[in-house]
Design a protein that fits this description.
By secondary structure, the protein is α/β, with parallel strands linked by helices. The strands form 2 sheets. It has an 8-stranded mixed sheet with strand order 5-4-3-6-1-7-10-9, with helices on both faces. A two-stranded antiparallel ribbon has the order 2-8. It has 4 helices and 10 strands. It has one domain (5-163): Dihydrofolate Reductase, subunit A (3-Layer(aba) Sandwich), CATH 3.40.430. The protein starts with a strand and ends with a strand. The structure holds NADP nicotinamide-adenine-dinucleotide phosphate. NADP nicotinamide-adenine-dinucleotide phosphate binds at residues 9-10, 17-18, 21-23, 45-49, 52, 66-69, 82-84, 100-105, 108, 129.
């Protein structure tokens, strides 16, 4: 299968992405950046991420939610998949599938991904959920700059764009 997914994540210096079902920081500029990319796209996420980001917060996107629960409730704009191959088949022809977490979903989607948009957060807060390790086949495409992009941001961030061609 060709690589057609984009992974999007905000990741601490210690690779943390989540704490007790929430983000471990408050960074309004990153939510703006995230929305800029995902509006109108199909979003693939795990059930726990879905529970923090219900459809009302993603009004213009179609959601594919991975769960092993065969009796998940029917919700408008939400499609359920019970395995990664099933999820990927739902968007086989599109380059607009954005994978938005969490850990297991990022790891399983990575072989089908050509680009990762990582907001690196200049902090190492405690957490219980981590971005998976990725290999040397990934190249950093840009020169990321640390910035406080919004005065309300709790930490500086840098936008990393990772790509791979194999
Ligand atoms: N910083 C970021 O960019 C970012 C992004 C996303 C999430 N987060 C954070 O990460 C945490 C949530 O992530 P998480 O890793 O704990 O959970 P998650 O990946 O969002 O959800 C895990 C659940 O997804 C389902 N699932 C995963 N892989 C599956 C597969 N191959 N087949 C079928 N179902 C599958 C299972 O649901 P069932 O239990 O229903 O079977 C599993 O329990 C939260 O703290 C959230 O705030 C951060």
């Amino acid at each position: 299968m060709r690589n057609y997914c984009t992974i999007i994540a905000a990741v601490g210096m210690n690779n943390v992405i989540g704490m007790e079902g929430r983000l471990p920081w408050r960074i309004p500029s990153d939510l703006k950046w995230f929305n800029h990319y995902i509006i109108g796209k199909s979003l693939l996420m795990g059930r726990r991420t879905y529970e923090c980001l219900p459809p009302s917060k993603l009004p213009q996107s179609d959601l594919i939610v991975l769960t092993r629960d065969m009796n998940a409730p029917a919700i408008p704009r939400v499609r359920y998949a019970h395995s990664m191959p099933e999820a990927l088949k739902m968007e086989r022809t599109s380059r607009d599938l954005y994978v938005i977490g969490g850990t297991e979903v990022y790891a399983e989607a990575m072989p089908y991904t050509h680009r990762m948009l990582i907001t690196r957060v200049h902090a190492s807060p405690p957490g219980d959920t981590f971005f998976p390790e990725f290999g040397e086949e990934w190249d950093l495409e840009n020169i990321p700059c640390w910035e406080k992009r919004d005065p309300r941001d709790e930490f500086d961030t840098a936008h990393e764009i990772w790509v791979r061609y194999i």
